[in-house]
């Protein structure tokens, strides 16, 4: 294992703890390899009937991938950057298809790569401290780690909205959207862990049943951060069903004076701060993913990521990470000045990869 991934087996439960709290448990390649090695070893281990994923520290489970690494690697001319994503996407698939109950404690910050190792879980537990998002368009990326797949499965047009804007949501919205299953007060998680560790579990279904019963016994949280998505769903569905991003922006601008005017103004302003290219690509990604299996969507994402880090070809990833995490000037120089300047050809090249090739790095994922 690595110093940033701790594992142990207690009560026939395999506990995985991400232990890089100073970096919000951001995933490095070594962490991804350690996670993969662990769950593969436990796949056939009769001493493990279920897996618990959790993060060390008070701030959250996982804020995503180690984006500084991507910037440094590309700038240094590294040729193995894509191998990080090959390994990460294979891990995402392994989580989603795991034969034993895999339970994610989605406490605190859960974004990007943290969503990728959580959304495929058999049980996704959020707390009043959960802050969840797929914020990639802010840094010139797109919602990868299977983001197109799980966002596209949300009701109405919530997937398009959350994907292109990168909006941060709390527990109530996560439950409403279908990005979480149950809510547990943060203060009860130590007791939940102890119950699991001290149990004598016959099988994984017994674990799932006991966790659900434990959560159901907890008091309703009076200080739960209130959600907005339920009230906004009609407006989200109306706007984000429009044909393309220029039409969506125009419709948002036209909401002045309506009951959704404040939300529309906030949303349009947020979109204009994102990478124009990547909000357009993300809209297309989520819509295409509705007809794809998780395996095929992940294969498409690998080609999309190659485009993102293709500096010569206008990839936005290096510039976005520079502005947000390296120089921190928050003034990215995007390839396009406006969303309206992005062409169909600009978008199309992100989807020109051949996912069916026998030598595709993710060919072995299967079709599920």
TrEMBL record:
The keyword Heme does not apply. GO terms for biological process: L-valine catabolic process. Residues 13-351 form the Enoyl-CoA hydratase/isomerase domain. It comes from the Bacteria. Keywords: Hydrolase. One of its GO terms (molecular function) is 3-hydroxyisobutyryl-CoA hydrolase activity. Gene3D superfamilies: 2-enoyl-CoA Hydratase, Chain A, domain 1. This is 3-hydroxyisobutyryl-CoA hydrolase. It comes from Pandoraea terrae.
């Amino acid at each position: 294992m690595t110093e940033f991934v701790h594992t142990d087996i207690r009560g026939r439960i395999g506990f995985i703890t991400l232990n890089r709290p100073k970096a919000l448990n951001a995933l490095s390649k070594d962490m991804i390899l350690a996670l993969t090695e662990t769950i593969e070893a436990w796949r056939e281990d009769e001493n493990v009937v279920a897996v618990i994923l959790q993060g060390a520290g008070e701030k959250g489970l996982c804020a995503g991938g180690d984006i500084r690494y991507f910037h440094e690697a590309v700038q240094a001319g590294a040729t193995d950057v894509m191998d990080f994503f090959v390994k990460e996407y294979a891990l995402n698939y392994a989580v989603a298809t795991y034969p034993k109950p895999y339970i994610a404690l989605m406490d605190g910050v859960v974004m990007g790569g943290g969503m990728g190792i959580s959304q495929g879980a058999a049980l996704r537990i959020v707390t009043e401290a959960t802050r969840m998002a797929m914020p990639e368009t802010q840094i010139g990326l797109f919602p990868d780690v299977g983001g197109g797949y799980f966002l596209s499965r949300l009701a109405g047009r919530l997937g398009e909205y959350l994907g292109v804007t990168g909006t941060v949501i709390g527990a109530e919205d996560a439950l409403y959207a279908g990005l979480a299953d149950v809510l547990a007060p943060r203060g009860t998680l130590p007791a939940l862990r102890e119950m699991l560790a001290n149990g004598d579990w016959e099988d994984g279904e017994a674990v799932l049943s006991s966790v659900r019963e434990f959560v159901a016994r907890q008091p309703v949280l009076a200080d739960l951060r209130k959600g907005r998505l339920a009230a906004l769903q009609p407006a989200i569905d109306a706007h984000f069903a429009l044909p393309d991003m220029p039409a969506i922006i125009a419709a948002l601008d036209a909401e002045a004076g309506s009951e959704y005017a404040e939300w529309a103004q906030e949303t349009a302003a947020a979109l204009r701060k994102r990478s124009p290219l990547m909000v357009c690509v993300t809209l297309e990604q989520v819509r295409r993913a509705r007809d794809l299996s998780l395996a095929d969507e992940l294969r498409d994402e690998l080609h999309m990521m190659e485009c993102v880090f293709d500096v010569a070809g206008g990839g936005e990833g290096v510039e976005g990470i520079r502005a947000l995490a390296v120089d921190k000037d928050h003034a990215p120089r995007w390839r396009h000045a406006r969303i309206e300047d992005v062409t169909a050809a600009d978008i199309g090249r992100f989807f020109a990869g051949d996912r069916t090739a026998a030598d595709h790095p993710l060919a072995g994922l299967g079709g599920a």
